[in-house]
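Sample intake sheet
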Amino acid sequence: MDSLSYQDKLTLTGFFDGPVVGEGVVTGRRGDIKRRFTGAFEGARADGGLAVSEALRFDDGEVNERDWLIREGCDGHYSVAPGHDTGAADIRTLDPTAGGWRWTYTMDIPVHGRSIAMKVVDLMLPLDRQTMVAHTTLAKFGIVMAHVYTSYSKN
């Protein structure tokens, strides 16, 4: 494992620059597995930031695609231009020595044939330079409706 240190910290844009693959599960409020998915992410420098294309393929055949434009700010903050079904995200660095990020935003989630705006909180934690894990909560009216667990691997 390639450990991370303050002198050589991992940035969010550094991790997603280039191809990244992911896989994960979506669980209900009580922890029951609802869906599984794989993801392909491709980041490239553009417009003063990192343009990331995301494609998630679920085990039931659904495909979700969205694009993000992530810009590094100062003091561990990032700004993200919203995708087609997301609001602007607030991203803060959790650990100045090794990275780790907390994203907060609103996203329209398809539920039983309709779209519901939910608050999304992503907690992304790098394990090393090639691997990151994430825990996401989806909430409506302050009630957590689902959890998403994802592992990311950088090629």
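Comment: The chain has a mean pLDDT of 85. Helices lie at 12-16.
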